[in-house]
Amino acid sequence: MKELPLYPIKFHPVFKEKIWGGSKLKSQLNKQDAPENCGESWEISAVPGSVSVVKNGFLEGNTLQDILEIYMGDLLGPDIFELYGEIFPLLIKFIDANDDLSVQVHPDDEVAAKKHQSFGKTEAWYILDAEKDAKLISGFNKPLGKSEFVARMNNNDILPVLNRVPAKAEDLFFIPAGRVHATGKGILFAEIQQNSDVTYRIYDWDRMGVDGKPRQLHVQEALEVIDFSEVKQAETPYESEINSPSRMLRTDYFIMNMIHIDDKITKSYVDCQSFVVYMCVDGKAEIRSDNTSETIEKGETILLPYELLEIQIIPNKEVKLIEVYIELE
């Protein structure tokens, strides 16, 4: 299998039904196989139990883990493979919040490794669609001490100190590990994060789970990782011009760029250290490499292996792609 060259790879989505999920993954992102109350579509995942399966080309039917074990640095990039080994380092999702998500926090690498044998969870959200007056939570609206936090939790009085901010289409929010956060009702977004499924839930709007009982909270675990400082600027500003690929966000774990074009471009990845992910957030395009051609349209995701050094993007009228890759120091 390894004798054949790699190509732009698509995967079958891994759908996650949630009590807060809705129908927008189907109606707006054309995921017709999504179940009712679908909250998440895991586009590229190596999380055990939810590993992505290839849907195109000669690798069809193989899992992401299968092809990573065979192609190693040719898929990830030699430096990335040396750092992460046979573990795909990112988790790529689309999320439909038809109701408020729980208020939660994620551990950093150190705590996650010690307690869960996992990576930490730093993430970023790009808003595709938001209903009128939609809001999300990002951190606290004032500096908070641990003792005040505990007292408020004991008195069910945490909501007044949570930093609620409006959300609209094309907004970008960076959520580092340790930041208390929640997506509000009526928001459809793309999420790029570390490969981790560790979440500490601290408040769930007093609602019941599917079993009719309150969902489990993880307050003691959360106390070890919460950043209690005030968040004064929740939204991450960025500039986006058509036919001028632009930087959205740089983190320790991934880079995000916006590619918004209405004309063909050639992208060279000769100097890129890693694989590249394209998430299509609007429009449609053809992705051409040396020997193959693949289409991508709104709601789809493609993985470009490291060994693809150059590709062409040919929009069908106009396309917006979030470009994601890793850049080591």
TL;DR of this structure?
The protein has 329 residues and is mainly beta. The chain contains 7 helices and 20 strands. It has 2 domains: 213 residues, Jelly Rolls; 80 residues, Jelly Rolls (Sandwich), CATH 2.60.120.10.
CATH architectural label of the largest domain = Sandwich
Order of helices and strands: EEHEEHHHEEHEEHEEEEEHEEEEEEE
The number of E-state strands comes to: 20
CATH superfamily of the largest domain: Jelly Rolls
Written description of the protein model:
By secondary structure, the protein is mostly beta strands. It folds into two domains: 11-223, Jelly Rolls (Sandwich), CATH 2.60.120; 246-325, Jelly Rolls (Sandwich). The protein is 14% helix and 37% strand. Strands 14, 15, 16, 17, 18, 19 and 20 form a seven-stranded antiparallel beta sheet that branches. The longest helix is centred in the middle third of the chain and has 9 residues, at 146-154. It starts with 10 loop residues before the first strand and ends with a strand. The model has no long low-confidence stretch (mean pLDDT 95).
Which labels suit this protein?
329 residues, mainly beta, Jelly Rolls, 2 domains, 7-stranded antiparallel beta sheet, 6-stranded antiparallel beta sheet, 7 helices, 20 strands, 14% helix
